[in-house]
Amino acid sequence: MASANSAIRIAELDFDSIKSNLKTFLQSQSEFTDYDFEGSGMSVLLDILAYNTHYQGFYLNMISNEMFLDTAQLRSSVVSHAKHLDYTPTSKRGARAIVNLTVTPEGSEDNVATTATIAQYTRFISEPIDGVSYVFSNITANTATKSGLTFTFSNLTLQEGEPVTQQYTVSSGSRRFNLPSSDIDTTSLTVTIQESVSNTHTTTYTQASDITEVTQNSAVYWLEENTYANSTYAIYFGDGVIGKQPANNNIVIATYLDVHGSAANKANAFTSIESIAAEYSANVTVTPVSSATSGAEKQGIEGIRFMAPRWYTTQNRAVTKNDYETLLLKDYPNIQSISVWPGEDNVPPVYGKVFISMKPVTNYIITLAEKEAIKAEILANRSVMTVFPEIIDPNYTYLKIDAEVNYNSSKTTLSQNELKQLVRQSVLEYRDEDLNTFNSAESTKGSLRVSKLQRYIDRAHSSILGSSVVIYAQKRIELTLNALGNYSIDYQFPLLKGGSLDNRFYSYPSYSSVDGASVTRSLFIEETPNSFTGLDRIDILSAGSGYTSAPTVTITGDGNGATATAKITGGRITTITVDIRGIDYSVATVSITGGGGSGGSASAVLQNRRGTLRAFYYKASGEKVIVNPSGRTDIGTIDYNTGQIELIGLTPTDVLDNDYYDDNVVTLNVVPKNSLIVPQRNTIFDIDEDDSSSIEITMIPEA
């Protein structure tokens, strides 16, 4: 008999330990005291026992992992756990495009009809994307009235995908029916039930969203992803207690689009491949309004793992910030990043609203049509009645990186250009891993950390000794040509007051405008030197008395240009408004004269962190000439504390064409004050890889 000390240790489950434990146990038995385990066939038997035990341990460990949502690795297991939380993973989504369609009947077609209807699922084909053309379908029927000789269908929504219809006959009380494709866009699914082969009356069923509202006669169905059969989907109906149960011989008709997901995004040219209104095919013109967006792939395992518990917490209603995020991430999978904040946290506060900003996967902003669809289809029946969602575009701030990189030239055979490329890739790696997303409480991503960027640069190659980095924050504004306009730009973080050519505010490219001499100039924008000492406000020290008209306010000091206006009520001075803030004041005195009264006095409060902007052009000789708008010394202001810039009274006639930015876009570039910036609300930091000037690298060799 074996003693208690010779018991096998069962806590060690790797192969070598199992075999060693088995051998030790057998050696402790009197029958095998002098047995040579290594030189006999017993060694093979021990290998088999050890492998079998190891396999069983591994298998049981995997089984235990699959029992929990956090550790499951099989999609079927993750989907099954999500089902217990009432969560259905999102399917593929077909890209959607908006088009205008014109139809002009030719001689052999119907020229008498005054209306025409384009049927649902009329098909179009896109121009090739990466060599592949995709079928798009009109998702709802539309009717147009003839104007002149032409029918015009405006703002048609085309969705990528081939229409598919499946029919099932109900028998023996069957309530569950499998949809055979794994490429279904479930948002396109429509379910109707026909009474029988002989009775063609149909009832449209809707997907159940709240079981508390489902009665025994509710015409609803449920949708879930199968845990087998290649991740296909299934629809099932009620049992007559919760939801209406289909009767035997009813015919279930399921229609949906089979889609290609994100592959069809950006399609922007279409041709009809079927007759319009079953009649017209000769003179059909499709004009794109917006290119295809919102196509997305089926939700992956990690997405399901992340979303399922949050969906369960949300309970299909939009009350908290997290509720809005969860609902939108679930039902609008084209979101790469989302930021939600209540109106009271907005600047300025707006009560009774919740603000939502989303960065789409396939573009920079979400189209107006998509915003309206999100509010109507996703949020309308879920948000609190007294709270109105407002979707605003992300506030993109593009970063321009100017880096000087020191390296030991004796420790590398690479050229400077090759080292530059490595540094550039490291900068883009930093962008991909830390930027290009909204900041959130759950993550440090989204924030600009100059020290972290430098670490990426310094580790780009072993020969790099160190680096220094200057970052410009860039805003892009689209100017309205040939119109007087004001433009407001909000960086949302403190800005550095430029003190040298290395870190001063600048604009690019030039824009054309007519100066005071009626000559068209190519203008740039810059900070006015020492302009951060204008007047911030004027405080009334004594209201005085006896004033019959507004007195004159005079400002004197070592600066110039400041003016102000007084207002009176009941013979007393009630307010003094600064009309022009002026520049270069370190001391300012306010005097009040006239108006028929006396005793009024006031004190000027100087700006500490507010500057002015001015426009200038270069002569052919290179001389800089300042352009002063009529009656003013500046074209705008810059608040260095808040990052708010106001451009006032611009009348551009043209913007210089360039290879970097869109037509009529002028950029404003300024250095942030701080090396750590946590973006607020809807701000996103990005580095535009397509702008070749966004990453400037100077390599400095050291012996």
List keywords for this structure.
single chain; 703 residues; alpha+beta; eight-stranded antiparallel sheet; 40 strands; 16% helix; 38% strand; globular; disordered N terminus
The overall pLDDT, averaged over residues, is 88
Taking the alpha carbons of the first and last residues, their distance comes to 77 Å
Which value, in Å, is the CA radius of gyration?
35 Å
Class from helix and strand fractions: alpha+beta
Runs with pLDDT <50, length 5+? 1-5
Q: Main β-sheet, in a few words? A: 8 strands, antiparallel
Tally of alpha and pi helices = 8
Rough shape?
A: globular
Helix content: 10-25%
Range of strand content: 35-45%
| Number of E-type strands | 40
Notes on the protein architecture:
With 703 residues, the protein is α+β, with helices and mostly antiparallel strands. Helices cover 16% and strands 38% of the residues. Strands 1, 2, 3, 4, 5, 6, 14 and 15 form an eight-stranded antiparallel β-sheet that branches. Strands 22, 24, 25, 32, 33, 34, 35 and 36 form an eight-stranded antiparallel β-sheet that branches. Mean pLDDT is 88; it is low at 1-5.
